[in-house]
Design a protein that fits this description.
418 residues, alpha/beta, 2 domains, 9-stranded mixed β-sheet, 5-stranded mixed β-sheet, 14 helices
């Protein structure tokens, strides 16, 4: 009995010792180089790509360093490799620390590379590496990815991971950039039913009139800013079909696409409409989509016919023509009619544009449509990608007004002159 108890004690001690040996392969935080962003560019040699690492310095801005370190907040390294999995070993010829993708949040790709037919082959390396999260953002840049990373120097946020987190997060909330990630890229490419939208950005500002861009109808790089800020512009989307970039759309078109998309949780945003009571002014308004869209699908003589109802909640923020909506029901009815017509025209024009230019939809219309088919096989035989360009799509916008500005009572022009 005593021998049995001693044996049990020995086994328990052995188990304790073995459990304490689990840190044999541990790596300290200061022994790793954490890649926050990775840039990919073309290379003249076939089968090669140019990789740029944006490596964050974890000590900058931390409480431990007290914020007084003289070290740079980031390090940038560029080299040529076969792919971005084996590139880590290549980078260690310069970087002493172990390269880690654990905190990789953005994959930055030049437009030149994204338009190549072999781009999908390059990106599938991300699906093989366990450290690369599917929630990483895909950013397409007008210039080389290396140049984008080097020229992006925000003054308000020196930490690169925080800059991309805040910049992309706010852009998605306002609808100026698409609410997608790497996982969506692979899903859309493999389903071959819809088009994928990637974030479009640049650090280059186009030459031209500073006031040429109207409202939100612009791409990244088309807005002129003064001051010392040198941060990259994020606006618009790169359009992908079957894993290859085929075009791009503006920030306004991206927002229109989001209004037609039930998979996108768009926050409220501010835009402007033509003032129906005085053509020289524009009315500022806050828009929100309180509920999901509803879809009706049918086929007439083999042609798909789809009716989309888009609910909108609108708060009027300005009254440049001094109509005073709070006391004029007729003006409210006229305003609602004007806004409804304007929004329906913009949505319809965008749908026609995608049918003619891209031959596919950017707002995941296949998801509600496939519910009308008994089996997945039947939906695949219907071939939504080929059917979409010839489909008849009708859009109806249902507007509900909120407040008409904080100060509802406005003086007349005659009172102001007197």
């Amino acid at each position: 009995m005593r021998q049995y108890k001693n044996l049990v004690k020995v086994l328990i001690l052995v188990c304790i010792v073995l459990s304490m040996a689990g840190c044999w392969d541990k790596t300290e935080l200061d022994e790793k180089a954490y890649v926050i962003g990775m840039g990919l560019d073309t290379h003249e040699k076939a089968g090669k790509i140019k990789v740029t690492y944006l490596i964050a310095n974890p000590e900058v801005g931390s409480q431990q360093s007290g914020g007084g370190t003289n070290e740079p907040p980031q390090e940038i390294v560029t080299f040529v490799a076969n792919d971005f999995i084996s590139s880590r070993n290549t980078a260690n010829t310069v970087i002493s620390k172990e390269i880690s993708y654990d905190l990789l949040s953005v994959i930055i790709v030049s437009e030149e590379l994204a338009r190549k037919p072999d781009f999908i082959r390059v990106m599938y390396s991300a699906a093989k590496d366990r450290e690369i999260k599917r929630s990483a953002e895909l950013i397409v840049t007008k210039e080389k990815a290396e140049k984008f990373i080097t020229n992006n120097k925000p003054t308000l946020e020196a930490r690169p991971h925080k800059f991309f987190e805040v910049k992309i997060g706010r852009g998605k909330e306002t609808g100026m950039i698409p609410d997608t990630d790497l996982n969506d890229f692979f899903q859309v490419a493999e389903s071959d039913s819809d088009l994928f939208l990637g974030i479009y950005a640049t650090t280059e500002t186009e030459e031209g009139d500073e006031g040429a861009a109207s409202d939100d109808d612009f791409m990244a790089g088309e807005i002129h800013f003064g001051g010392k800020e040198k941060a990259a512009q994020f606006a618009g989307s790169a359009v992908f079909k079957e894993g290859m970039m085929i075009g791009k759309i503006t920030g306004e078109e991206t927002r229109i696409s989001s209004l037609l998309d039930n998979t996108w949780e768009l926050q409220d945003f501010i835009t402007a409409f033509q003032d129906p009571f005085d053509g020289q002014y524009r009315i500022s308004a806050r828009l929100a989509k309180p509920r999901k869209n509803t879809y009706q699908f049918k086929q007439q003589s083999g042609q798909p016919v789809i009716d989309i109802k888009v609910p909108m909640y609108i708060e009027i923020l300005s009254d440049p023509s001094l109509v005073n909506f709070s006391k004029n029901e007729e003006k409210i009815v006229e305003l609602k009619k004007s806004l409804t017509k304007s929004m329906e025209e913009h949505l319809t024009q965008y749908i026609k544009y995608t049918q003619e230019e891209f031959k596919g939809d950017t707002f995941h219309l296949s998801i509600p449509i496939r519910k009308n088919f008994a089996t997945l096989k039947e939906f695949r035989e219907f071939d939504w990608m080929k059917s979409y360009p010839d489909a008849e799509i009708n859009v109806n916008v249902d507007i509900r007004f909120g407040e008409f500005g904080r100060q509802t009572k406005l003086p007349s022009l005659q009172e102001l002159r007197d």
